[in-house]
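Predict structure. Chain length: 263.
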Amino acid sequence: MGSIVSFHLPELTRYRWTMSKAFTTLEQHGDVPERIVSAFRTTWQRLSASGTWWTGAEQVALAAIARAAFAERFAAPWMRTRTDELVATVELPGDSTSKASTSKASTPNKVAEVMVRLSADAKTIDRAFAEEAIARIGDAAYVEMVAIAATVAAIDAFAEAIGVAPEPLPSPLPPEQGGEPSRTRPDNMGDIGAYVPMLVPFSDANVGRALTLCPTGNRLYRDVGGTLYHEGQFYDLSWDRPISRPQAEILATRVSAANECFY
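Prediction complete.
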């Protein structure tokens, strides 16, 4: 799959981001563990470079759309002005399934619309939506978009919860520094009845292999999720932390129910 979208987001170029300066607000908060700050900084570094299917510039632009949509998730779709503003700045080739196509689309940008749906209306996603998105984008590129949406949501929800402003997104690295997408598919993928292929065999919970079709996306999300959730103590049912493991699971269940989580 070639680079199927061209992003023109002038606001992204104003950030002069460095690893050491990112998330200093969290660092100075006093109650945020260093492991969380470190994990978030690593995530910004990964977003600014190429993933498996999207370039660094595309990943950051997709993250900007994800952030805007997530911030406006409680608004009616026709009232998401910031999201609409960003979506309007994204240009999509007329036929994204054709690598040779360079014409501009006259219809709304479907890639951006997919990211909005993933970030603001995930509870409405069904097989028909996923199949339509995959037909246009590709299954592995779709999985990488899911990973970006979920990761941005986790980091921004954390900021919301402790009452700080969201961290400015990183500036994308130029190709000579951030590399180019490898666009390689991992081996041992199979159909387990989900919307996309996943790793087989797999002996753990299915949620643990949901993003395995794109290993870089899987790592992007799981490193943040693991840091915020279990700190590598997933199988420890009696951890010594500010809240107990049963309390953590009750909170997770309640949040999932409130968000109408499919899983």
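Summary: Residues 6-179+215-229 form one domain.
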